[in-house]
Amino acid sequence: MSIRELFVKGARVWVPDGEQVWRCAELLQDYRQGKLQLQYADGKTAEIKVAKDEDLPPLRNPDILIGENDLTSLSYLHEPAVLYNLQVRFCNHNAIYTYCGIVLVAINPYEELPIYGADTIATYRGQSMGDLDPHIFAVAEEAFTKMERENRDQSIIVSGESGAGKTVSAKYAMRYFASVGGSSSETQIEKKILASNPIMEAIGNAKTTRNDNSSRFGKYIELDFNKSFHIMAAHMRTYLLEKSRVVFQAPDERNYHIFYQMCASLEDDLIKNLKLGEPEHFLYLNPGRQQQQQVRCGAIQRGRSSRTRKKVGSGGGGSRVMGRRSSETGVGYALGIPRRNSLKWQGDQDTFHYLNQGGSPHIDGVDDSEDFVATCRALSLLGIDRDQQKQMFTILAAILHLGNVSILDANGEQASVAPNDSAMLILEELLGLDRTEMAKWLCHRKIVSGREVFNKPMTLSEVSGREVFNKPMTLSEATFSRDALAKHIYAKLFDWIVTQINKCFSAKSKPYRFIGVLDIYGFETFEINSFEQFCINYANEKLQQQFNQHVFKLEQEEYVKEQIEWEFISFYDNQPCIDLIETKLGILDLLDEECRMPKGTDQSWVEKLYSKCGQWKHFSKPRLSNSAFIIAHFADKVQYESVGFLEKNRDTVSEEQISILRACKVRMMQHIFVEEKSHIKVKVMPGGPSKTKEHRKSVGSQFRNSLNLLMTTLNSTTPHYVRCVKPNDDKMAFTFDSTRAIQQLRACGVLETVRISAAGYPSRWTYGDFFARYRVLTRSADITRNDMQATCRKIIANMISDEDKFKFGRTKIFFRAGQVAYMEKLRADRLRACGIMIQKHVRGFLHRNRFKRMRQAALTIQRYVRGFLARRKVYHIRRKRAAIRLQANMRGWMARVRFNRCRHLITRLQAHIRGMQARMRYEHARRTRAAIIIQKFVRSYLQRRKFVRITRGLIKSQGLVRCFLARRQLKKLKIEAKSVEHQKKLNKGLENKIIELQQKLTELQQETGKIHGYKEDISNLKTQVSDLRSVEGKLKTSNNRIQELESLVKNLQAQIELERGEKMDVLTDKERAEKENREIVERLNEENARLNKELESVQEIAAKKEGEELLRKKFEAEKEQIYMEYDQEKASYQKLLKEFNRLEQKNDTLEEELGKLRGNKHQRTASNVSSMSGASDAPTELVRDDTSEFNSVVTDDDIGYGSVRSRASDRSDLSRNLENIDWGSPSHKSSSTDISIPVPEKVEDVALVLQLQNKVRELEKERRSLSKKLEHLENVSPTDDPQHAQEMIRLQELEMENAKLKDDLGRLRNSIAEAEPHNNRVQEFMKQFEALQDELERRREECIQLRTVLANRSHDLAALTSASYGKDVDIVNEDGELAIAYQTQKQINRQLVEELQAEKARSREVEGEYKSELERLRKDNDRQQKLLAVNLTKGGPGGGLQAEALLQSEIMRLTSENLNLQGQVDSLTEQLKKYKRSLRAYARKLKEAGGGRRGTTQAGSPFGGDHPPDLLEGNAVGVEGDTMPIIRKKDREYMGMFEYDRKDEMQLIRILIYELKPRVAVTLLPGLPAYILFMCIRHTDHINDDEKVRSLLNNIVNAIKRVIKKRHEDLDSTVLWLSNTLRILHNLKQYSGDKAFQAENTLKQNEQSLKNFDLSEYRQVLSDIAVWIYNGVIKLMEEKVQPLIVPSVLEHEAIAGLSGNKPGGMRGRAGSVARELESPVEPQKALDLLLKELTHFYRTLAMFGTDPELITQVFRQIFYYICAGALNNLLLRKDMCHWSKGMQIRYNLSHLEQWTRDMKLHEAGVTDTLAPIIQAAQLLQARKTDDDVHSICDMCDKLSVSQIIKILNLYTPADEFEERVPITFIHKIQAKLQQRSEGEQAQATLLMNTKFAFPVRFPFNPSSIRLEDIEIPDALSLIMLKKV
């Protein structure tokens, strides 16, 4: 294949472009010699000329390869392909990570992405590097896995330019190591490592024009691991801190973050006394103001000499511009700029001279005050206390104030500091140094030499016998000295902080292995490059050399491993460039030599470089400069300016300045300068104690040594590479600048990796994948299934003729670059040809069928048309005949109608006329009669009015006459009153009154005398009143109590009256019930009447049904809400419980290790382990028992020792009171078989004996009747009516509340009686109250008895209704059946009445016969008794002998009968024992023949639940294969307990718990150990032994915990004890006596409830243990299922090769270490293995009798885990996201759904947990057009927005025939999904949480097995137990 074959019409190529770097174009015609006709994407055409074939433009890869995860998987490997693939992934798919061979390319998105959470870490854990999408976590996992498996140190090298995201990538890598390698100790070193990030960012990061958080130093962090591969320590090395940033920042840049954090936190206690202000006030923080001062200083600066400018330029900054600005601003005060003269802080930036650099003190979106708090918190976490923090911040503040020191220029020759300089005063106050000395040595330097002739004035002094000269400095020199001191202080503080962090990271033991993370500058080139850029690029040269060697080594190893012939791959070797820099007489060596020269300058050094290094190919001299030089680095040529190299390499600081700082009062300052000497050279790395020789090393030498040490470390490890790329300079999210990107790709070595790969065989296929992809290119005859290599050779031989283009390896095929694209073209052509052939045949078939259908249709149409015409002709003929006949009939009908109408009209007219005449006559007569009546009434009215007028006149005249007579009588009386006799009568009355008044006066005088006597008594009584007042206060309280009691008595009396009325009602009901029992007919009639009433009530209920339905819905909603809250509380508690169990297990492990270390041989047993029920071990929250299925709630007062009464006991008490039967009498309890009457040897009266015998017979009959009645009452089961249960519980609650009130009342009564012991009224009141209380109790008991009678009657009707309708009582009379039933009942009643009457007649006849016979027998008996009595009473010896003989004969007869009966009983007993032995033998044979496995049912029990067959009752062969059951028919009455001795307790625990094996337990009754243990608990409760029951329960709990801890990896053991623990828990509930748990109990089970102990606290403990075991079971199952999830759900293919694999790169799924070392499951077998594993889980759970509800919960959790694992893997695998794979996934999931249906789990909602992965598969299969946006959004309701968008971005067609998903479609989907509710959008996480756990609920499951029927099998050997 020649290259011309690829450049054909339609081929796409890349053309260089000035703006876009590379531009895509399509060939309009085939390539001809020297010409290419192109058409660009915008429609423009062009023609380019090609000189030779090698100059042809690079070809573009097929669309199917665009967007691949690995750049090496591209067929054409060149620069435009790499650039375009990165752009497509970054902009279209939002993928920031891409593999390029062994390199991970990371592009900064400038946006927070949700791909770094804990769920993402868990997903990448354990995955091979090529399995999932590229990620920094994948690189970290690869390093961690190699360290684990190869036991070799690893390193991750992160590089890139500023703003590319190096620091963030390194941070995420360390976060991953901290998560997966978490320390098991309490130090939590991983938290400290993460906490060091904010500290290092604060002191080492700054804002630049390219990055807001640029790291201005290099660092290498070693994470040390122990042998368990847990992080135990760490160590940090730093490289090349940018100290010049402390004193200078370019415009729009900032100083280090820590300064701005301090200025933003002025109110903090650590900062408020440091006299700081806004950042604009400090020159070191804001250099922008100097641009204004440059204009003012221009004249002076132009007058300076060039030599002075060079000296100034050599100081301070990282470039020539930076040095110039530092010198120019030094003349500030000389130009008249105002200065500060006091310590008072003004806060105005114009007040400060050296505080206005940068011009950008703030960062958008960053709160420096919050960052300061985070920094302080991190410092505290790393062991730096607040005192050290305050000293550190004091030093940092001092650096800022040092920059404010104003240096004056006196005469151009000498500089000075003003004595009252405010900045110097603040510096003195903060550090406590000598201000005068510091001001002196900032402007002077000491020279200990006399050989130099000085032209400037200087001072002379004697020091140690030598002459010392103090030389004054110029303004520029003093400014440089001040800045150098500030930089040196910051560098030393930086080193001290790093040292403290390393101390915090350190560990005492030696590390086993380490992983290093290198975060260092990338290759840098600017317009002006200085010493810093030289060192950075030198380091990158070393790293690039190591990278090239490693890549070449990997390529060589791959070829050797595959045993292919290969040629040496030539790659760029940058060793000559490194030699140029670091060899003898190299750049660094010449630089150090020049620094040692007394008068060395930058210019002299660069001239030496020209002369010494000119012969190097990588060194050159620029044409237009004599102070610069050029080095050809691996990435580009860089021109360096020599100005400042010498000073930066020396980095000198005066010894006098250091001495002043060493003498300051700040201890930290003294500490960091304790070992400084004169003219100290600053070191880059912090290290141990330094020697004098090390101090003389230059910065370059130190950097070279540290770099060599770093390279040695990296070479000893396995490196992993991360190259960070900055997409644009504007920091815009997901914006790709091709020009900037290609520059970085060239500089970071990515293109070099591509070039090395392209030079060899970059495309690699396994034989199986190659055959699956390209099998269409071969014939079936050429396929050899057993030899894939031979088949692939045949395929390749037909495609590629040049053998150099491919190589066959041992397991892979290697191709040159471009061959895969050529094969893809051939494959597409073949598929296209096949498609055309298929289309041809299909279209022909369709057209033939269409013609046949059309021909058949034409014939059918003709047949139907002809028939239609014939039918239409016949139709017209018939219509014509019918019309004629209709006309004839119609005309006749019309004539008849006219005649009838006329006749009817005449008749009606006559009738109306005659009627009118009759009405007129009637009206005249009626009017005449009315007139007569009116006349009658008018005349009567006139007469009545006349009579009334006359009567009124008479009455008036009578009144006037009577008035006249009365006035005349009055005059006579007045004359008589004025007479004398009348006055005498009046005086006599007055005399009588006077006498009465005198008598009263005498009486009052006597009373007055008495009152004088009383006054003395009153004075005495006043004293008594004062005494009584005190008593009155005491009586008030008692009176209040008495009033309360009186009111209570009134209330009670009212209640008594109410109850008396109720009692009377009940008595009447009782009488009516008795009458109903006597008269059956009347009872039936009353029942019918009651049914009619109930019918009416039911009809009323039906009318209210709608309202009840609303209430029911509301109740259901509230119930669901309560369930949700309960599940949430349950989930949170179970999380806490899980953490508690984990910590407890960890504590036990540590205790065991501690015991081993101490050498203690004492082993703890179950007897000395503390109980879980104690307050210290019990959790704070309780798992609430699931009693939601009960309608009643038992209050806390109902829990206690014997506080709950059973329903059977209540009914027995009521029956006893009603029928006055003493059921507890000895006669009732006596034996029913033996009745003996002692016969004395001497009988006094035989007649009396016979009478006694008759009495005994009557009593025997009575006893039998009572026994039958008792049995009947015992067999009557308690009602199951929920309403009745609610009433009973409510009654109990009222009784308990009443008991509480009575107790309170009794205590109150006693307190009153005690307070008033001598008060008769109180005592009398108490007696009356007690009498009333007794009467109330008696009345209450009677009411209860009568209510019970009514309840029994009403229960009969309820039983009838429930028997007819079951639980659906609400549907009574739904269709009017009550009315029908009523009519039917009436008929039945009539029939019953007739039958009853007939039966009565028959019974009377029979009764007459029986009475006559009974009378005859009675008479005969009396006659015989009389004869016997006569004979017995006769005297003489013969009479006694005769009586004795009679008695003996009677005794002999009875004895013989007794013996006969006893013999029959014995024979029956022997026969029964014989049958039992034979039955046991048959069961044993059946067991031996059928094996030890039980047949299981759906409920998990081998007997179909909790109902085992009873072999002794005829069910011996109930289930095929069942073994001998444990339950046998009881021979005698047992109490359901096992008695044991206290000393055998541990043996019992050992046998039942410790030594019980699952293979033995499976042959037993499910839960048998739990039953046995509970029966032992019942016995301890029965004997009321508190210590014994607590000991047994504690030992049971501890034994279960120890067994689970020991066998936690055995699924059978954990499931066994999960089911047994729950069975114990259920038994404790069932037999607790709580009404809520007794709904399904029998009377016997209720009688067996615990009587003496309340074990509710142990129910909680067992519930916690069950949750712990359940979590362990889930964990075991998840561990077994986890390796099967991806192969079975995602990779399994029912039709192999259907999906079609795409080309893979170096990071193929078979290429990583993890994939090579492990043995993965074959995908074709994985699905079957998964289903088998699930079936095994189900059978294990069912085999041990696990509750069905719990089985459903287990598989719900497992299926969620399967869904989460599969979906997370799918979201991180691009190769899985296409249509055919979606179909395969859906097919695989259907197997899981079918499995749930087979296991009857689908109805429980288990498959609902698979909804997310099912919807993801449907999304892959769905059409993706604009019309499908709404349907897709509705379909994917279980997927989050980010998951849907991620799948659409990952969707890549497997073939070219599939359409790619348009970006516009994704945007429409995203816009539509934003309309979801906030609750749905809250699920914004990309990955599902695989650690999520559903809340665990243990529904109450009572057992129907009778405890008294349980026997202990011989296999358990529990001989110490005795059944009671």
Notable characteristics:
alpha+beta; seven-stranded mixed β-sheet; four-stranded antiparallel β-sheet; 55 helices; 26 strands; extended
Structural account:
The protein has 1924 residues and is of the alpha+beta class. 59% of the residues lie in helices and 6% in strands. The chain has 55 helices and 26 strands. The protein has a seven-stranded mixed beta sheet with strand order 5-6-21-7-17-10-11, with helices on both faces. A four-stranded antiparallel beta sheet has the order 1-2-3-4. The chain has a three-stranded antiparallel beta sheet with strand order 14-16-15. α12 runs antiparallel to α13. The chain is extended.
Placed side by side, the strands forming the largest sheet appear as: 5-6-21-7-17-10-11
Count of runs of 4 or more consecutive helical residues = 55
* Radius of gyration, taken over Cα atoms and rounded to an integer in Å: 56 Å
Q: Which structural class is indicated by helix and strand composition?
A: alpha+beta
**Roughly how much helix do the residues carry, as a percent range?**
55-70%
What is the residue-averaged pLDDT?
Answer: 75
How much beta, percentage-wise?
5-15%
Q: What characterizes the major β-sheet?
A: 7 strands, mixed
- How many β strands by DSSP? 26
Ranges with pLDDT <50 over ≥5 residues? 288-355, 450-465, 676-695, 1160-1246, 1276-1280, 1435-1439, 1489-1531, 1707-1719
Anisotropy-based shape:
extended
Termini Cα gap: 96 Å
